[in-house]
Write a structure and sequence with these properties.
By secondary structure, this protein is of the alpha+beta class. Helix content is 49%, strand content 24%. It has 5 helices and 8 strands. A hairpin with a 3-residue loop joins β2 and β3. The mean pLDDT is 86.
Length: 167
């Protein structure tokens, strides 16, 4: 199979979208929401039985707090402002994917990896993701591919080499 060579520079919107996708797929975020909802439901049921309005409001507070924090960091202009101060997200990237190895090159250097360096790969409508570990991902925008056939070849390569998940 011929190598797949990609060259791109992520846009601000792509970095934000990739970060949001990763956060929403995080087990810790899901667990936090689930814990807040369970706590609120249990407290709500107990307090409805006793009729204590003050405690009913306190039962809803964790959901409001967790939801408010999520909305702030998910949609806040603060996130975009922080990203603008991180030029490493917006440098040009060169990738070379072969049957045996992966090469990733930026202005800071070149890294050669075997496929086993990555734990899994994923796909969304806008990206392919390579997971180095639970917290580090490499988003690859689909616009970086020359055509749909190259995307298909890449998807098939990922499925052969890594655990592949549809996100």
């Amino acid at each position: 199979m011929a190598e797949i060579i990609l060259r791109y520079q992520l846009t601000e919107d792509e970095v934000i979208d990739a970060m949001r996708t990763r956060i929403l797929r995080s087990w810790s975020v899901r667990l936090l929401f689930l814990a807040a909802i369970l706590f609120a439901l249990i407290t709500l049921v107990i307090n409805l039985a006793t009729g204590d309005v003050t405690m009913i409001i306190m039962a809803i507070a964790p959901i409001v707090l967790v939801g408010g924090l999520f909305v702030f960091f998910y949609y806040s202009p603060y996130t975009r402002a922080r990203l603008r101060n991180e030029p490493r997200f917006f440098i040009e990237q060169h990738w070379r994917f072969g049957e045996e190895s992966i090469e990733h090159r930026t202005q800071h250097g070149t890294a050669h990896h075997t496929w086993s360096t990555y734990t899994k790969a994923g796909e969304t409508p806008r990206f392919f993701f390579l997971f180095l570990n639970q917290h580090q991902i490499a988003p690859i925008p689909k616009r970086a591919f020359a055509n749909a056939q190259e995307q298909t070849r890449f998807r098939e390569l990922l499925k052969r080499k890594l655990k592949f998940v549809t996100m």
